[in-house]
Structures are given as structure tokens and as C-alpha cells.
Design goal:
Spore Coat Polysaccharide Biosynthesis Protein SpsA, Chain A, membrane, six-stranded antiparallel beta sheet, 17% strand, Hexosyltransferase, alpha/beta, five-stranded mixed beta sheet, 530 residues, metal ion binding, transmembrane helix
Length: 530
Amino acid sequence: MMLRRGFILFLPRLVGLLVVACCSMSIVYMLACTPKGDNQQLALPRVHSPTVKEGYEAILQEREEQHRNYIISLKKQISQLKAELQGRTEQLKNMQNQYSDSLDIQLDHSKPEKAQANLLAFLRSQVDKAEVHSGVKLSTEYAAVPFESFTLQKVYQLETGLTRHPEEKPVRKDKRDELIEVIELAVGSLNKPDGVSKAKPRVYTASDFVEGIYRTEKNKGTLYELTFKGDAKHQFKKIVLFRPFGPVMKVKNENVNMADTLINVIVPLAKRASKFRQFMQNFREMGIQQDGRIHLTVVYFGKEQMSEVKSILENTSKSANFKNFTFIQLNEEFSRGKGLDVGARFWKGSNVVLFFCDVDIYFTAEFLNSCRLNTQPGKKVFYPVLFSQYNPSIIYGHHDSIPSLEQQLIIKKETGFWRDFGFGMTCQYRSDFINIGGFDLDIKGWGGEDVHLYRKYLHSNLMVIRTPVRGLFHLWHEKQCLDELTPEQYKMCMQSKAMNEASHGQLGMLVFKQEIETHLHRQKLSSKKT
């Protein structure tokens, strides 16, 4: 009875547990069989759905489209990687072709035969790389390397150099020796027996030379094509020669410390107080504030406006706390050479870099470093080619106003020109200036003294560094050519004055101004009629 009663009491609980278990199993079943969302997997159409076939086709098409796009993307990436790899391979190959020979050519005294063979192989490769046997594709019309032509007497050149002459007798010794050597080599080649013809060969001389052309590819060599008279009237002999350039070789590797290198800027002056005020603004900003390793020597001629000049100098000294200046006054007629010579010899300190400057010069702090880096006592003097400014009233005549001075100092053909005929601005150590003999003090007035000093340096064993610099400007000012000048000085002054105003195009616009205005007036009238 007790067991039966216990069983009866336990039965409802068992039924409850079974019901709960069945419900739990149903819930788990429903969760397991319910399709996942779009972000997890695509829902398959139900078996009894009327669109089972269309649903499966749509899913298959979508999957196929996804795979197709993925494949296209992979192919595109592979193609890009191949192109990049090919480009890198070509770059590596070119670098190997360019530098591997150079590295192998380094002279190995233990294996002189191998070094010589490598050098010859490199020189032959230069001929193949240069534009000798065939042309190369160029990006623009300005990328072509032009030829220059020559005869026995003259050279006709596009790059006129320091002489500024389009045709000239070669005045540079290296150029003259080069062309003579090439002609002699060509004559020798023509007279060399060919070993085939039994007839008495003709003997060629330099007088048979008609003309030649040559050009230099800076990293490859110089190509020469020479034409000689042939055996009959319309026949010619042509010789092609090539002077290959050797590999780049390291000559020097050194540290240069200019922290304590002082520059003494020497300025000769007479009157021109307003120009001196402008000069001191530039000197204060570039020389005192930015550079700081600088001394100023002013050599003043006469007494007119002297007090104003001294006042400008003293005000700059007080406001900038600048004490490194010297003022020298001479009671005599202005002479630029005399002023620079006196200023250079007045210095009593240690050997110093002298920068011979004028009051109408604008320089930057970068130029002062160039001045230091290109001078070396007993070895190098620096003759920078400065950029000369055109007349701003002509350049900016069509503008509402003339820009500030700093905005005008742009190196473009419309704003100025390289003053390659001027030798007045120069940097050298004081010791070299004294040893060379200084200026010729017999030259008075404007011009001539700078050329005389320049020639002294050229005739010495010092290396003259002549190069255009981007941080040295000659500011425009109206030039007065005095009657007291000698005929040669007056001619030089007038030539300088003519070149100082504007470019050929700008001067042409002034010459034809009336003609241009007439043309514009006619066009205006015709447009009104229509």
C-alpha cells in the first residue's frame, strides 16, 4: 500500500518532467532548423514553395556573379603586380648595366689585365648607349641634344658661353685642342692603308676638311661627324668618331666646417645714401640675422651725404647689436678699384674671405655659404655670375602696381638675365688677393678694374670657379655714363646700360607700341560695325 501510494504521488511529477523535456526538445529543434539571416547565409527556398526552381537559380546566379567579380579582381591585381615586377626588373637591369661595369673597372693593381679589359668593355658599351647608331625616343622638342658645327676657322654654337658669340674662333684652349685632335685623328684614319686596293692611295690633309658637327651627351661621350672632300666633285668622305666618357670616379670625400669662417663684405661708396639704406636692410636680414658670421667694410669717397650714410650704419648697429663694421673715408675722386683695395688691406685680423660687393646688390644667406664653399686659400677663388634685374617699370608696366622687391627677385627670362660679362662681385681669401697684387690703382671711374683682377687670377695657378648662382642679384638702377670715361670704358658702360633695361621681346613691344595700338584700334572699330 505504501509503495502504491508513493508511486501515485510521484506520477504527476514524472509527467511534468516529461512535458518539460518534450517542450525543451521542441524549442531546440525549432532553433536548429530555422534558416539564418542574410548576413550569415542565404535562405534556401522551402521544399513546398511554388518558386523553388526560380529561387535556386537566382541563388546560383548570384553566387556565380560574386565568384566572377572576385576572379576579375584577382586577375587585375596579378596584372598590376606583374607590371610592377617587370618595371622593377628593368630598373634593376639598367642599374646593373650602368654601375656594374663601373664597379668592376676600379683599378686593381694586382690584376692590371682584368682592369684594362673591364675598362675597354665599359668604353665600348658607352658607344652602344649613346645616340650614335640609331635615335632614341624623346618626350619633347627641347629634349634633343643639339649639334654644333665647325670648320677649320670657326665654331658655330648654340650655347654661346661666356663670350656670347654665336660664331667664333675657339678661344677656350680645351675646345681648340679638342677639335684639332679630332681633325688630325680623322686625317690619319683616312690615310691608313685598307689592305685591299693596290692603287696608290690618295693622301688626305686638313685642307680637305669641309665641315664637322659634334655634340656631347653628358654621361656618355662626344660624337663627331666629319666631312672631307672625296675623289670627285660631288663625292665626300665621312668619318664618325666617338670619345666615350669613362665611369664616374670618386676623387675626394671630406667634411667641410664653415662655422668659424668670417666674410668681410667690402662696399665702395660715394653719395647714393638711399641705395645704401636699401642695401643695409638686406645686409641686416641676410648677413646679421640669418648668417651671423660677417663683417662690413664701407669705403666712402668724399663728404657729400657722408653723415647720412654713417647715420644709417650706426642705427643698424644699435638696433641689431652689430659691432662688426668698419667705416673708411677717403677725400678723393671715386674709384671702385681703389676703394676695394683699401678696404681689403685695412683688415688686420687673421686670413678672411673677402666679398667685393656693390651697394645695388642683393644677396641671400645661401649665397654667403656658396662664397665660403667655393673659396680656398692658395687654391680657389670664386667668381659668381649674378642675375641682373630688368627695369621694373617696363617689366610690370601693365600691372596695377610694381611688386615688392622680394617678389621681383625671380629668375626668369622676362625679369632679368645672367650677367656673364661682369666680374665685379667676387669672393677670395685676403691672402690670395694680396699675393696676386690687388687692383690696378691707375684705373679711375667705372669699369675695367674688375676685369684686370680677373685676368690676374686666370694667369695664376689658382682655380677660378665661375658659375651662375641663384642667391645674388643686381638691382636695376638707371645707369649714367659720364663724359670723363675713356672711349673703351664709355662703350662698356653703354653696352651694360642697353642690356639692363629689358629683354628683346619687351623692348620690341616698346618700339612697335604705336603699331600695336593702331592694330587694336582697327580691330575695335571693326567689331563695332559687326
